[in-house]
Amino acid sequence: MLVHQVFFWLKKPNEDLEAGMEGCRAIGQLKSADSYQVGVPAPTTKREVIEDSYHIALTVNFKSIEDHDAYQEDPIHLQFIAEHKDKWEKVRIYDFNLA
Amino acid sequence: MLVHQVFFWLKKPNEDLEAGMEGCRAIGQLKSADSYQVGVPAPTTKREVIEDSYHIALTVNFKSIEDHDAYQEDPIHLQFIAEHKDKWEKVRIYDFNLA
Q1: What interface predicted TM-score (ipTM) does this complex get?
Q2: Cβ–Cβ of A39/B7 closer than 8 Å?
Q3: How many Cβ pairs closer than 8 A exist between chain A and B?
Q4: pTM value?
Q5: Which residue among A4, A82, B9, B65 is the one 20 to 30 A from B94 at the CA level?
Q6: How far is Cα B56 from Cα B41, in angstroms, rounded to an integer?
């Protein structure tokens, strides 16, 4: 399984959080994806190692890197990026294979 | 569900990767954890938004923040940190609640 873990920092979280999460749910349901989940920072104890300044966590799981690559090129995914990218202050992605 | 997503950067990945992953598997199986997975960076296409300089991804899922807090204080978890922390160049943790 390939895990595509995305974190979004929004410019205007108060205004754009819900729309951003809905967009994430839409692309998580693309046929190339095996499963997905959407989250928001949890109120765990703050420590130096904790990164909690992001606003949305999107996890999309793929059965193969080919499925991941198909997802990247899916017109609905590209439309999501086009529609939402101006709302993002920063995006950080960690792709990892389960081992 | 609370997702505890940890990324480890090792000082000496060639030497310490296997031991680090074994340690992650051990703490992922603590009774406070609902489930866990361990991964390594996937060879997806490099882009500006991709972070692939870490060596180990550990995901631990908890049914509640209380279970997460119990995990943090579990003697076996504390022993894992004591035994392995000198091998880490950096640790970054993202805790998020599924929404």
Answers
A1: 0.96
A2: no
A3: 105
A4: 0.97
A5: A82
A6: 7
